[in-house]
């Protein structure tokens, strides 16, 4: 079992995992966050949120200055001075929006670049200032699909020709560079360490599966998604499924792997 005494890294999804799905609070996880800080264990946030959204959240959670993974794995920030796109040759946001606007001739959808801050606020329940941060994108686009379900496959193929891929998020679809994702981003990040730390990952959604497959110990937090979290890994004894949702499940998962008396 992992322990707080060894080099350890926690990587966690935000919405529905560390943050409550409905209230965005994290009270149940606060004691563990303090304990991890005391042992200098980095907590790496890994989210579909943008870097602009994650930086203030890091501050509120007491995680300022730690690496994080943004935009579902299309962006990794190692430090305030160093932020990279995954893969490194992926198109920037303007080029991505340009590719998508061409596809709008064939498919009915809208992206965040087509909306204003008030429109995004109305769709997401975020405030207008939070919506502005959600629209500060660097490498991926959030889209609202307005076409028939049957056309998604053709849309996926059209994206693939542009070296792009489609990922389902909690509420929206995300268009990402091919070869990016939470798993790829985490593998890249761990490759920056001389001695790779022991990893514990926590997530609740289908888009967390690649990240949960890439860590040594995985906590699948009970979630609200109709789509189950399907892992490909064989070592099921290193995977723990929680009975609780959100931050309570987050606490339950770390209790399981880091409290020595099972």
UniProtKB/TrEMBL annotation:
An annotated GO cellular component: cytosol
GO biological process, one term: mannosylglycerate biosynthetic process
Coiled coil region boundaries: none
Signal peptide residue numbers: none
UniProt keyword annotation of Amino-acid biosynthesis present: no
InterPro entries recorded: HAD-like_sf (IPR036412), HAD-SF-IIB-MPGP (IPR006381), HAD-SF_hydro_IIB (IPR006379), HAD_sf (IPR023214)
UniProt keyword annotation of Nucleus present: no
Protein name: Mannosyl-3-phosphoglycerate phosphatase-related protein
GO molecular function, one term: mannosyl-3-phosphoglycerate phosphatase activity
Entry keyword set: Hydrolase, Magnesium, Metal-binding
A Pfam family recorded for this sequence: Hydrolase_3
SUPFAM superfamilies listed in its UniProt record: HAD-like
